[in-house]
Amino acid sequence: MTKPTHPIRLLLVDDDQHLLQSMGSWLSTQGFDVQLASDISSAKERLSDLSFEVALLDLRLGEEDGFELLEYCRNVAPQMISMIVTGYANADTGIEAMRRGAADLLTKPLIDEELMMAIERAMSQRKVIEENRDLKNKLDRKLDKGNIIGSDMRMQKIFDIIDNVADTKATVLITGESGTGKSLIARAIHQRSNRRDRPFVEVACGALPENLLESELFGHVAGSFTGATANKEGKFQLAHGGTIFLDEIGTASPGLQVKLLRVLQELEFEQVGGTKTFKTNARVILATNEDLEQAVAEGRFRQDLFYRINVINFELPALRERSSDVPTLATHFLKKICHEENKNIEGFDADALAAMRDYNWPGNVRELQNIVERAALLGKGPELGVKDLPSHVSDSFVPTTFEVPTGKKQTLKEALEGPERMIILQVLRDNNWNRNETADQLGINRTTLYKKMKKLGLDEAESTLRLQAN
Questions:
Q1: Which CATH number fits domain 412-469: 1.10.238, 1.10.287, 1.10.4160, 1.10.10?
Q2: 425 has a pLDDT exceeding 90
Q3: CATH topology of domain 153-315
Q4: What topology is assigned to 9-134 in CATH?
Q5: 468: Cβ–Cβ under 8 A, 6 or more apart, which residues?
């Protein structure tokens, strides 16, 4: 019999105390790090405190069902190899065990050699799974940033930070306006971390009243409040070993802020109405569109909690601040909706892309996605143009290029008006329509700028474009 060459941590669960102790003692002499449990509750405690390579689970645990524990293991510890042990095996039992995720079915009485061979098979299987997962992770890290798109320097910096912090346990705070993609950043951190095979649990803190939100996060015991007819696990329990994403954290009540601070500092909590303390190994990511420093100054947000969650901060730029990414994002969303709806659209024409690039996007990336989907579903023809965009986007757009009628000759002066108009428009925008600063930057006097604006139609469009920019 081959003894393990390294200390494999093994969870042994059986309600027969004599068998549990004797088998545990023998496995320890074979070089295993053995943890014992006699029921489902104590097994869950062991799983919450430690990680295991292998679990041997008795099928009949008194009045409890070993299949229930098997499913729990599959959900909270998918990397662990679980095997069922029973004295009542038949063909149906074996099929059911495999269906629920068991790697093997062993029958009592256990023979030492057979048990060791089963564990060695389990470890070989685990090694193959880990190698495949590592290979997939390497490929994903090389080829994929999730669904986040952006060539803007600020976005590229964010991509770099995601790679640097993904495998740490540090709490992350993501800030930015609504619709900038905070949820996508949270998912990207999870997907690029060593927790990617564990749960990613998202909670919209602003969508629930305080009492329900506390129950949602920490769970409750039966009878703790009206309607609590059964025990319920909270999101922190479900996210054990994985990531919990708390969106709209700025809306948390003072009482909930105290409990969150305890979870972040001590990694433990109690369910609503309960006295039992639970441990959590969930990585916490939070997001808000509020200015939390201002909320601290106004006494709406705890200062100690703010310092605790602001370990690593991602500040996402508004879409209007990275307008160069708009054409790429619009094209990406168009391809996505065309694939989903089986639409055959080649893309946007130049003016449509320019109109979207120049628009202010108060709803950020979420608004852009909605507008692209609308254009794809309602537009006609192989290419989408300005006419396919909603009026609040298209009405403020002033074309920077002009078609020359067939057969009409164009002077050099006329040909240069398009680029000249585009340059002046861009500098005006950069200077928030301050004509003096614009004239200085262009190297012309203010009177010349006024004349050019009038000639190129920019004076008439100024009020519309100013309104859009604000």
A1: 1.10.10
A2: no
A3: Rossmann fold (3.40.50)
A4: Rossmann fold (3.40.50)
A5: 358, 359, 360, 396
